[in-house]
Protein: DUF1722 domain-containing protein
Amino acid sequence: MTFYKPRIIISACLDMQQVRYNGSFVKDDFVLKLKNYCEFIPICPEISINLGVPRDRLILYKSNNEIRLFQTLTNKDLTDGMLRFSDNFLKNLNDFDGFLLKAKSPSCAIGNALVYKDKEAKVFHAKGRGIFGSEIIRNFPNYPIEDEGRLRDVNIKQNFLIKVFALANLRNSKSTMNNINKLMEFHRENKYLLMAFNQQKLKSMGTLIAKFKKDDNFEKIKEIYFNLFVSSLASYVNKGKYLNVLQHIYGYFSDKLNKNEKKYFISLTDKYINNIVDLRTLIEILKIWSLRFENKYILNQTFLNPYPDELG
Structure:
C-alpha cells in the first residue's frame, strides 16, 4: 500500500541539528526511522529569536499567574519575543499534518517543562508547557502534537501515527476530490478509522454527504467535511474504542467462520485487552479474512492499513 508522506513540524534538535543550548542534538531511534516516511519541517524557536549556540540556560517561572521565559545569567525576559515569533510562525503555517516537539524544553515542551516560582530557578513550582509549545496547542488543538518521550508509549505512538498519516491522506486528496462521489468514496474508506476516534463526528460527516443536493456548493460542503475530519482526530483512542471497531469488522465474517475460528478471535481480543497481543495482531487476522472472503470494502478500509508496518 502507498502512503502519503505526512508533513511534520519538528523541533530542529530532534532532526539532529546542533541547535541545543550546549551545541548538541538529540538522537532518537524512532524519530530517525520516522524521517524515512515523513517530511520533516525543522524549527528551533530559540534560534529564531536570535539566541546563539551555545547559549545561556533558559528557564520558565511563574509571575502573576503568567508563565515567563527567562535567561537567568543575562537577566533577560524573553517571553514577549518568543510570543511574537510564535504568532508570526504559526499564522503562516499551512499544509502540515502534526507536530513533534522536544520534551522538557522551556520553549517547545507540551507539558513536562520545569516551571519555577522564582527567576533564579531555586524553587520548583510545577511542570508545564514551553512558550512555543503552549502556543501550538492553543492555535491547533485538533492536530496531533507529541514529544519524543511520550512516543515511547506504544498506544500514544499508534495514535500519533494513525493521525498524521490520516491527515496526510486528507491533505493530498483535496486536489482530486472534485465531486460528491469522490468525497463519498473517501468517507467510505475512512469509516472505521473515524469510528474509532469519534462516532458522533462520523455520523455528522455521513449526514452532510447524504443531504448533498445537485445545486449545493460542493466546495463549501468539502470544507465543512474536512474540518469535521480534522476535529474528529482530536480524540485519543483507547483500547475500548479500538475493540469496538474490531468487533464491527469481525461482524462481516462471523457467520462464515467455524466455531474454532470464532473462539480464537475472541481469545485474541481478551489478550489484547490484557496487553498480551497488540492491535496489529488483530488487524492482521481481519486482513486475512478480508482476503479469504474477498471483501473489498473491508480491504479498502484505512483502519486496516493506517500507516507503514515498519513504524511498529
